[in-house]
Amino acid sequence: MAERKPIRVLVVDDSALMRRLITSILSSDPEIEVVGAVNDPFAAREKIKELNPDVITLDVEMPRMDGIAFLEKIMSLRPMPVVMFSSLTREGADVTLRALELGAVDFLTKPDGALQIGLAERQAEIIAKVKAAARSRVRQMPLPSKPAVRCGPYPLERIIAIGASTGGVEAINHILRAMPADSPGIVITLHMPPKFTASFARRLDDVCAVKVKEAETGDVVLPGHAYIAPGHAHLRIKRSATHYVCIVDGNDRVNGHCPSVDTLFFSVAEKAGPEAIGVILTGMGRDGADGLLAMRKMGARTLGQDEASCVVYGMPKVAFQRGAVEAEIALSDMAGQIMALLSGEGRRKRAAAAQPHGISSNSRDAK
User: Fold this and answer.
1) Residue 66 known to be catalytic
2) Would you say the C-alpha torsion 260, 265, 270, 276 has a positive or negative sign?
3) What value, to the nearest 5°, has the Cα angle with vertex 199 and ends 184 and 235?
4) Does the keyword Aminoacyl-tRNA synthetase apply (predicted)?
5) Which residue of the set 13, 54, 59, 287 is catalytic?
6) pTM (whole model) above 0.85
7) What is the DSSP letter of 278?
8) Mean of pLDDT values over 166-178
9) Of 299, 300, 298, 251, which Cα lies nearest the Cα of 280?
């Protein structure tokens, strides 16, 4: 058996200390080789030609050419996996979200306090994200389609729950931009730190037919609205008469994450049952698989993003393997399939979906 080649990484950062610390952290893993560390995009351009790295870590703020401008050139001329480093500020969040829209695989935030201590505490996360980037699929995302034609109103009991991680920014963007203004209420958990979720919600609200906001406790889940879990707490729903209400609380880590997709999905399974549609999108790890399985057992329709259209086929893969996913769908078709389920196309009887002693085998295509 041939020995696996190490992941070749180029570090691009104008701070000599950051270059040294990132290099040290990545080099501590035998599966990673840092082949170069440079201080600006012009030097990086030459190193990319010379060294042909598998992954680039890229600082957002650099002299001569900022990271976003350089990322645009990379993704247009030589698409490759890029992990961005950004600050934990609203401005940093806006820039990072732009980077993810341009094709960066993932991002890491710089510590607020002592740089060396902060990065050391996140060593495992930094290594994991670089490894995931090396395995990711870098491609031009499909252009968001126009919002679907209004075909509601839907009963207030109908609800759509979506979970995602790595690659989820653009996947959620793509789906929400295709949803009509009268779609059922949508609740979303995406693995993202505080401040970033608020910026993400604002950016989506500017371009979507549905209204998008960061969820707050007490928000009534209304048709034509989407609610994104804040980066510092879990999102759940509760039932109030014919409505659902958002509950935002708790900062414990579930499956290593806060907010957690499983936390949202379990609450939707309990409170909405067969009135729900669950969707699990691109991301590494297993968060969401158990919650989606609970949703399916309670009669919800469940969809997973297919491997070919995922940036990282991790969360959808685990969910599919556990029988939580009723059908795997390409990202470009996901919004249409959600609308088809809502309109009753190919609908099975809901009672048949709830099988307390097990569920039917899943498939690659919706029926």
Assistant:
1) no
2) positive
3) 50
4) no
5) 287
6) yes
7) E
8) 95
9) 300
